[in-house]
Amino acid sequence: MRTDIYNWVPITVSEVSGIFSDIPVKWGIGGGWALDLYLGKQSRAHADIDVILFREEQLTAFAYLSKDWILYKAENGKLTLWNEGEFLASTNDIWVCRDDESPWAFQIMFVDTEHDFWIYKREKSIRREVKDIFTETGGGTPYLKPEIQLLYKGGSAEIREKDQKDFLKVWPSLLPQAKEWLKSSLNIQFPNGHPWADSIENKNF
């Protein structure tokens, strides 16, 4: 078990793309990098880099990645080895390193699907067709669509300062249908109100 949770030296987007382009799974960049790929420029420093994978394809990903990387389950504040053949039904977060002495290089986030629909884990009534959750850069790197990434950021227990800044930075450039989807999803998850949904409604941004 490792405890060095701040020992991050993340690899680049192009390095991630080089790794996962050889693995027969559906994947995309997530987190703050997904928003920057949408904007077409790096807007801030990123402490890590996230890769979105579908849970049902995890063993395929493990078989390829474990040849060159060590994979740890990050759950309940602990990091424990992910063992070969172990199907993770509830673990959502995997940290990846070259060896036990090297820093963390990238993070895998599992998302759930059902009947070709992605399911938002915090409010399972919010769904979207699997084929409609990723888009690509001009160079072909897939990433999570910005409205979905903003829902993950805004739907957490606490909106961090960087997430608030990301929202303010990205919102103006979203397409109308993306804006409506994010607003609707926030209202479903937070029927009693949410700062972003309220700002959208009142145009206070």
Account of the 3D structure:
The protein is an alpha+beta fold and 205 residues long. The chain has a domain at 13-145: Beta Polymerase, domain 2, CATH 3.30.460.40. 32% of the residues lie in helices and 23% in strands. Strands 1, 2, 3, 4, 5, 6, 7 and 8 form an eight-stranded mixed sheet that branches. Strands 9-10 form a two-stranded antiparallel sheet. Strand 3 (70-75) and strand 4 (78-81) form a beta hairpin. Helix 4 runs antiparallel to helix 5. 30% of the residues are buried. It comes from Paenibacillus nasutitermitis.
Keywords:
single chain, 205 residues, alpha+beta, Beta Polymerase, domain 2, eight-stranded mixed β-sheet, 7 helices, Aminoglyc_AdlTrfase, Aminoglycoside-2''-adenylyltransferase
Provide the fold topology:
Elements: H1 13-20, E1 27-30, H2 31-39, E2 50-54, H3 58-65, E3 70-75, E4 78-81, E5 93-97, E6 104-114, E7 117-119, E8 127-129, E9 134-136, E10 142-144, H4 146-154, H5 161-170, H6 176-189, H7 195-202
Parallel strand pairs: 2-6
Antiparallel strand pairs: 1-2, 3-4, 3-5, 5-6, 6-7, 7-8, 9-10
Helix pairs in contact: 2-4, 4-5, 4-6, 6-7
